[in-house]
Design goal:
Layout: E1 4-7, H1 13-24, E2 28-33, H2 36-50, E3 54-58, H3 64-72, E4 83-86, H4 102-130, E5 133-138, H5 151-171, E6 176-183, E7 186-187, H6 190-194, H7 199-205, E8 212-213, H8 214-225, E9 235-238
Parallel strand pairs: 1-2, 1-4, 2-3, 4-5, 5-6, 6-9, 7-8
The chain binds NADPH dihydro-nicotinamide-adenine-dinucleotide phosphate (NDP) and 2-hydroxyethylsulfonic acid (8X3).
The site of 2-hydroxyethylsulfonic acid has 7 residues, from loops.
């Protein structure tokens, strides 16, 4: 029987690449994002390419009631979830803490921390009752190190790191695995979002070195998901070769 994975933030970047690789391995998918047109198109493409079914759930992970209603109203055939990929997230702004914008701070805290918690809250009971399942939390190198002007983004990703460790302790008795994936610079829409739509500024982030691509992270996620039940990959830090630590990028 095909397994079911629930991916938040599946309309772009790492989430979309994860949908591709899981679909190519026979997973049926619950695809979440706010951009309905994107996930609906992805659902059709994955059906055509790999013959898997996708169920689109359009909601904003920051809104508790939307999250609760969407997950609680899943049709019966979509409730038997095996894998949750908590991927939806963003950096908003890159400024010293004394110049920080309140809207940026709230967007990051509400999405990266509270959104991850809201989604997990309604899916955990399913995995716990089954006595199996796998949660993949997308953290960041910003959750392992702190860099100048990253302040609140780094804090939210440190929270993802801590929550992943806590979840692992509390869910292991129920046979539920928890893996945290911490990437360095991956070229996606991430920097366009961070710079509030300034594509020129975003492009510069990736100039002069070989950045990671979303498929690199998706392949690592698939490796973790595809281990035997006895094996859990607790965490992976995945960096561009040119970026040995968060704050150093060796550019040509
Ligand atoms: P993208 O901007 O390309 O994709 C982000 C995804 O998250 C989109 O699908 C977006 O969909 C979704 N999303 C954002 N906010 C919400 C929300 N409130 N509700 C639902 N979905 C939302 O970025 P990445 O693919 O790079 O980012 C994915 C994850 O990886 C994030 O958690 C990010 O912090 C992390 N990460 C990224 C790195 C990078 O360098 N790119 C490195 C380390 C970690 P929509 O807008 O349609 O809602
Ligand atoms: C995204 C990578 O280096 O901008 O999480 O923090 S970085």
């Amino acid at each position: 029987m095909n397994k079911i994975a629930f991916i938040t933030g599946a309309s772009a970047g790492i989430g979309e690449a994860t949908a591709q690789i899981l679909a190519s391995n026979g997973y049926h998918l619950i695809l979440n994002a706010r951009r309905k047109d994107r996930i609906e198109k992805l659902a059709i493409d994955l059906k055509n390419q790999f013959g898997v079914n996708c169920h689109c759930l359009v909601f904003d992970v920051r809104l508790h009631t939307e999250v609760k209603n969407a997950i609680e109203s899943l049709p019966l055939e979509w409730q038997n979830i095996d894998v949750l990929v908590n991927n939806a997230g963003l950096a908003s702004g890159l400024a010293p803490i004394y110049d920080g914008d309140l809207n940026d701070w709230e967007a990051m805290i509400d999405t990266n921390v509270k959104g991850l918690l809201y989604v997990s809250k309604y899916i955990l009971p399913i995995l716990k009752n089954k006595g199996s399942g796998h949660i993949i939390n997308i953290g960041s190198i910003a959750g392992k190190e702190v860099y100048a002007n990253g302040n609140v983004y780094c804090a939210t990703k440190h929270a993802v790191d801590a929550l992943s460790k806590g979840m692992r302790i509390e869910l292991a008795p129920f046979g539920v695995k928890v893996t945290a994936i911490h990437p360095g610079a991956v070229e996606t829409e991430f920097s366009i979002v961070r710079f509030h739509g300034d594509e020129e500024k975003a492009k510069k982030v990736y100039e002069g070195f070989e950045n990671l691509v979303a498929a690199d992270i998706a392949e690592a996620i698939w490796f973790c998901v595809n281990r035997p039940f006895r094996v859990n990959i607790n965490e992976l830090i995945i960096m561009p070769t040119a970026q040995p630590i968060a704050s150093i990028i060796n550019r040509k």
